[in-house]
Amino acid sequence: MKYENVKSGILILLVALSVLLYYLLWTDQGGEFDAMDTSGSTMKQEALGDKKEVSEVIKPDEIYQHIDGQHYGTISKEEVDHILNRLKEFDYGNFRNISSTIPSIATFLEKQNNGLEIRFPGQVPFRIYKDILRIDQDNSFDFDTILFSYKDGNVYFLSKETGKVYETSINTTYIEQLNKLKENVYAEKTVYSTYFSYKPNDQYLIYLPNGKQEVNKYKYFTRQIESIRLSRALFEEPSIAQKEILTNWEEYTDDSGLLRIYKDTHIVSFFKPAGISNEMTQNHIINNSIELINERGGWINDYLYVGRDEDRKVTFRLYNTNGMPVFNLNTELSDIRLYWEDNKAKRLLTSNLIIINTTTPFDFSKETVSSGEDVLKYLKSNKKLKMEKLQKIVLGYDMQVDSQSIVSLQPTWFYQYDHKWYSLYSEGTGGSLDGLE
């Protein structure tokens, strides 16, 4: 009997040692995973962050409720997700192009007093978003705003950039459910604030908050991704990439790619990542950009799709946990940029900094920033600006990185003017206006 007990004990010990050995071998790989290429040879590419669905990256960043002539707005991520989940439950009717009947999108939006307005940070191809909203119909147009009428259930997909407007409607049985989306405006701990509108031109209507805002400023610890891990994530055959250390950057090269990591700015530049050579539409380029980032290391911070341009550059921007966009206008450190040429991704620009524990910064404090009225007054006073070229004004964060790689997020007003972003002024000294350059 004792012999059997000893034998059983030895067996249990061996199993435990096997599990421990497996664990140590796995963790020693630094989170790598094996992938098989088409030739059957094994290549190792590093997983740096999470893979994300299209619906997690292409999302609205502003919600406005127009009720009885008042505007209520929020950037709460939780409220955005709540509303999107409800909209997926509706049945949508046929789409009609009514652009010719709406000469001014800004005026059309300005007249809304009983509706739900959902704004996206960039132009979104309908063919991508129809699957997210579970719409069966297929149409080829872009939009940046969706407007729901609480009165009759009409739905408008609008593009302020192109002037296009497409109309549909939800089944009347869903109108009561749609109107329930107003309820959070009147909740005791509402995430909505009151806004006023400003129309600089016939295309754009800008909403700005009433009164001064109290916003947190943050400091975060970061972790730099080692250059060897970046090479494993980005090269198809990282084992053949040659490393060279220069004064201002580290460099990896193989027969087709060049990876450069800049030491001072934390910018990562990867030239000629693998792309898809078939003819691609704009929605294919956006989809493939998301897929490429998923395959080449993943998403190391929280980014949203914010647009593409005529040069086929697709941009994703960092957003803070409170829903505010993060800018670094000097080096664009807060963006991921993918450049496409001849239907192939030719260049990837990103950062090698991972913000540690975004929900718990090591330092934060409240700061009062200027009101929307003061911001608008300040812009109008600048004689260098032509207000009709103004497109957006947003409260965001200016991202700075010190020599210890600590990230500071300072609340700052930004404005988009003639398709380019500018910082309005520094908010660091009691909200004083420092002037435009």
Automatic annotation (TrEMBL):
InterPro entries: YycH, YycH/YycI_2. Residues 4-423 form the Regulatory protein YycH domain. Keywords: Membrane, Transmembrane, Transmembrane helix. Gene3D superfamilies: 3.10.450.310, YycH protein, domain 2. The chain crosses the membrane at residues 9-26. Pfam families: YycH. This is Regulatory protein YycH domain-containing protein. It comes from Niallia circulans (Bacillus circulans).
